[in-house]
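Marked as duplicate of an earlier ticket. Keeping the data here for the record.
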Amino acid sequence: MKRTFSDEELRASAAKLDPALTKFMARFPGESGARQPVHTVYGGAHLFKSDTTQKLGVLALRALDEYGPDAATLGNAIGLDSRFRDVVYARVTEKLRREPVEDFRIDFEDGYGNRADAEEDGHAEAAAREVAAGMKNGTLPPFIGIRIKQFSQELMPRSMRTMDIFITTLLDAAGSLPPNFVVTLPKIQLPQQVTALADLFDAMEPKLGLDKHALRFEFMIETTQAILSENGVSNLPLFLDAARPGGGRTLRDVRLHRELQHYRGASADGPSRLRLRTAHDAGRLRRHRPLALRRCHEHHAHRPASRNADAAAG
């Protein structure tokens, strides 16, 4: 057949794009194939016990038995096609018995509040020992972590201290971190806040005898400033860069959570003037999510299902 270019000429032409494509793939590595939780449950650190998530499963099964005692009742309630009701009902009940919670966050922020230092110190230590007990007894969910307070001028020292006590106590009691353990940093506004946590991890790991990058974190997209800077530029790529300064942590060490519920209160317009705008803006965000939230790394952003775990305490 007739051709204009030889194979060598085509390879040479394609090779010109290699540097750009290599850089692109490093930036957007795609999914790893590793499991990701479908939800995240938040519960106050002062209430956490090693079997909290199992108790949540018992409560869920009790509610299902009361309000959806059979496949037909549940199917009618949620408008499920009759062809799938039996199999869905069986899978739901099996899931609630086996693994009712996939990801749990022991909360030292909104679900905990501000307390005296001695009180929070005690809760951080106690929660760590409960996690160690859960590791021993096999009662933890597949994913678990802590949410510390935001890195503001007022709260950052307290936030770092809580994290230090928790992780140090956990390693002392259990000898290792649980699988898929993360630290959640909420309400970020500046890339420097992300870098501060990454730097703290880099300093902490050798002191605790952990492998490099053994500590993983996620940051929560909850404020308007996290989406757009004062110059109208998206901060999301900057946050990801800040998580791996100097080529340290890769994008695979980081996850994003987003929470639209905080955007309204964080706006300079105030909540009253945003009542009508918020639903419209939230709809636009759902339809046109920033690319960084969808494809920046293997752990793509998801909104945690923040549920009250207080009923499972005790």
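See parent ticket for discussion. The chain is about 45% helix and 10% strand.
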